[in-house]
Amino acid sequence: MKPIIFCALVLSCFISFSQEGYKFIDQAEKQIEKGNYKKASKLLDKADSADSADYGFCGLAWIEARWTITANRTKIRAAKGEYLEAANELNSMTFYLDYGMDILRMKYYIQALGKERIKRDIDSCLESMTSIDTVDWTLSEELYLNVGFSEKPYGIPYDTVRLIYMQTFSPLAADKDKPLIDRFRIAVRNQEFYKLLTSQ
Length: 200
What we know:
The protein has about 200 residues and is mainly α. The chain has ten helices and two strands; from the N terminus they run αααααααββααα. The chain folds into two domains: about 80 residues, no CATH class; about 100 residues, no CATH class. The longest helix has 21 residues. The termini are far apart.
């Protein structure tokens, strides 16, 4: 009986310790709701520190926590009117962006820099590409555009890459006779993040 009690105590201590990081995140989110951004930032720093936070042994738990921390830092930056920083924060986590967050990232870039500059940068990047032979479509989980408006290359997340792939290689009848690179450019410009740049 004693070994079972000992094991239960060890397991309970482990679970409690591995939840410490989530406690910091929960506390930070409450502070964000109250508008206490300085306190929230300090709590997110603790949540992001290997010294003060743990999420257990599962790598996926760490990834999920890292994404949640980034999303909350983005909320703080946007609330303070730091739209470029908020957009760059999201851009650093391209792999984890879902459709809504991808659109939000572009909206932040637009608020910071304006549509014209961003569209010009993306168009310039697309037109400078002479081939898509270097894209490994079987392994590519995101696609990066080398543009000047973002801190790092602008990442196109997985779900959008899949749409670009389908529209490039299975184009509409009107585009099927065009060269592959042209179909790729059309496909990129058909995506919602780009349409934000052309809408009124």
